[in-house]
Specification:
single chain; 596 residues; mainly alpha; two-stranded antiparallel ribbon; 4 strands
């Protein structure tokens, strides 16, 4: 039976079984010891909220102290090449095969490569921010840990809720897409392999057991070890690269330059290119999973920036080339929005090539699920280490060096959703969650560079906050203006753009930097993070009002959970060394988190 060493309170060691299940493992905090204790905790909710909302963690806590919560360490076994392939596997899925034709046909026309370039630029900006923070705070928590250090517990909690929502919805969506592409590969209708249950409501009446099997299979590989999973992903990525090379070779060998200019390179104008960029952006999501592997990287300061930025740069070039091959091979008005590459190949006498495309999409989704299972479990592990969710899910298996419970939790949640739901409703919530977190990470990086608790004076803090408010406010203004009835008038863009430049220039020349990076730093500070804020908020504005309503509902549910559970668990965790000792002090963080 797998076990781990733990203190017994008498100076010796006792062996604790990994496979255990008790109330103390899920709720070790004093606030949940009895119903009476919980009632007392609820009565103290307001002062506890004051304490937690105004608190920030530290680099040492996130990348050091909290690791003890897992009882066993995650293993450092990955190089920058492993991270680069993990980035490729997590990002290059079915999106480029599905979205390219759709957006070329209805939004961008032959200019679809520019849409991919714009979306890739935005994603690359975010990857720069992630790279610096991952080297400074090499924690499995990724963006959650960065926000907890720089923006405090409440912002980190909201990010945690959105991360877990993304994990479940994203994995479920990939699982159901896997079934659809398998059906296409064998020449069947997309829903042919699903079970229709008329008694259930529309949108939930097509059961997908294949998606459940695929999710369980990829997660089983993920818990076997990061080294093995990385090796499998690298081999799968080699297959994906071969398929992409085939698409590019065939596409460019049949390229007709007149397809790019007939009737126009910009048939839908610049607005169409930006609309397409907002949609194809989702082909780039998943790179943040690489940042969660920093704790398992041999040299995070070198390997994370190299792996993350090299993979995102290469993926941007590949996407632009693939989209150019499509619109060069076939006139955009003739592109099939649902099966763009397969139909384009068939028009050139290669009907069999649709199977290659379907195989490429299947491979991409499988790699996405595999790397996603790794990254999502690491996020969950760090969140559990802070006790925002039960610390049971932070435990790392002593033999495999992987968070088995966290992986199982995400997988079971995704499997339940994938079995029943078509995800039409949840997809937009996942999209807005991703952009929300990316924008917060860019803000967190600016805070890290320009504010240091205990050394930044009040005047310096006010100066920084004033310029930061100009950057964020003008970014929101540009997004709102672009999506209003005034979008066609240039004075608004000039005004908001001038405010953004003034705010960013103020940070560059008028605000004092309080901290410099130890190993790797984002170039052109603060321009790149400020531009990342602007691009993510701009893309958020492209989503409809219904997405914001759903996002607001999810946020209210998250805050309700925080008030009823999260704030009390984290309060006990932070004060465990003061007046609220726990029965087992070895499983809680010692010392209060440093306040702002």
């Amino acid at each position: 039976m797998a076990s781990s060493a733990d203190g017994d309170g008498s100076g010796g060691l006792r062996r604790r079984r990994y496979w255990r299940w008790s109330k103390a493992d899920f709720f070790p905090e004093p606030s949940f010891r009895t119903w009476r204790a919980y009632g007392g905790a609820l009565a103290s909710t307001i002062p506890r909220l004051r304490d937690r909302v105004g608190s920030r963690s530290t680099d040492a806590v996130e990348a050091g102290t909290l690791l003890a919560q897992s009882e066993n360490p995650l293993r450092r076994c990955l190089s920058w090449i492993d991270l680069a392939f993990l980035g490729f596997g997590s990002v290059v899925g079915s999106g480029v095969f599905v979205l390219t034709g759709q957006e070329a046909r209805f939004d961008a026309g032959p200019a679809i490569p520019l849409a991919y370039a714009a979306a890739g630029f935005s994603a690359l900006l975010s990857s720069f921010c992630y790279a610096e923070l991952a080297t400074e705070i090499p924690s499995a928590g990724g963006s959650f840990a960065y926000l907890r250090v720089e923006l405090g517990d409440l912002a980190a909690f909201l990010a945690a809720g959105n991360i877990l929502l993304e994990a479940v919805v994203g994995a479920a969506g990939l699982g159901r897409s896997w079934t659809s592409y398998l059906a296409a590969l064998i020449g069947r209708d997309a829903d042919a392999l699903r079970i229709h249950v008329p008694a259930l409501a529309d949108g939930f009446n097509l059961l997908d057991p294949i998606a459940v099997v695929v999710l369980i299979a990829t997660s089983s590989l993920a818990v076997s070890g990061a080294r093995l999973t990385s090796t499998i992903n690298s081999w799968a990525s080699a297959v994906g690269i071969a398929i992409i090379a085939f698409v590019l070779a065939v596409g460019f060998s049949h390229l007709d330059p007149t397809n790019l200019t007939t009737p126009s390179f910009f048939p839908f104008g610049a607005a169409g290119v930006f609309r397409a960029a907002a949609v194809v952006y989702w082909s780039y999501t998943g790179f943040d999973m690489v940042a969660t592997m920093a704790e398992e990287t041999k040299d995070p300061g070198r390997d994370v920036p190299l792996g993350l930025i090299s993979s995102m740069s290469a993926i941007t070039v590949v996407y632009c080339a693939m989209s150019l091959a499509l619109v060069g091979m076939q006139r955009y008005t003739e592109i099939d929005a649902n099966a763009a590459y397969g139909v384009a190949f068939a028009a050139k006498g290669m009907k069999w090539a649709r199977y290659v495309v379907a195989l490429g999409a299947l491979k991409g989704m499988t790699s996405g699920l595999l790397v996603g299972a790794l990254g999502q479990a690491r996020y969950t592990t760090q969140i559990a280490r802070t006790h925002m969710i039960p610390p049971y899910f932070a435990l790392v298996h002593p033999r495999t060096g992987t968070p088995v419970y966290a992986t199982l939790a995400v997988t079971l949640g995704a499997a339940c959703v994938a079995l029943f739901s078509s995800l039409d409703v949840l997809a937009s919530v996942s999209s807005i969650s991703t952009l929300f977190i990316f924008a917060l990470v860019a803000v967190a990086l600016l805070v890290r560079r320009y504010y240091a608790a205990g050394s930044t004076s009040t005047a310096e803090l006010r100066t920084f906050l004033a310029f930061l408010a100009l950057v964020v406010g003008s970014s929101i203004g540009i997004s709102v203006y672009y999506n209003s009835g005034l979008a066609g008038h240039w004075p608004g863009y000039v005004a908001f753009g001038a405010v953004w430049v003034a705010g960013t220039a103020g940070l560059a020349f008028g605000a004092k930097r309080q901290r410099e990076p130890k190993v790797y730093g984002v170039p052109l500070m603060p321009w790149l993070p400020a531009m990342s804020v602007a691009t993510n908020l701009f893309l958020m504005g492209s989503l409809g009002s219904l997405a914001y309503i759903r996002f607001a509902i999810c946020t209210v549910v998250m805050l309700l959970y925080y008030v009823l559970f999260g704030v009390h668990a984290t309060y006990d965790m932070a004060h465990s060394g003061e007046d609220a000792p726990t029965a087992d002090s070895s499983i809680v963080e010692q010392g209060k988190i440093v306040p702002v």
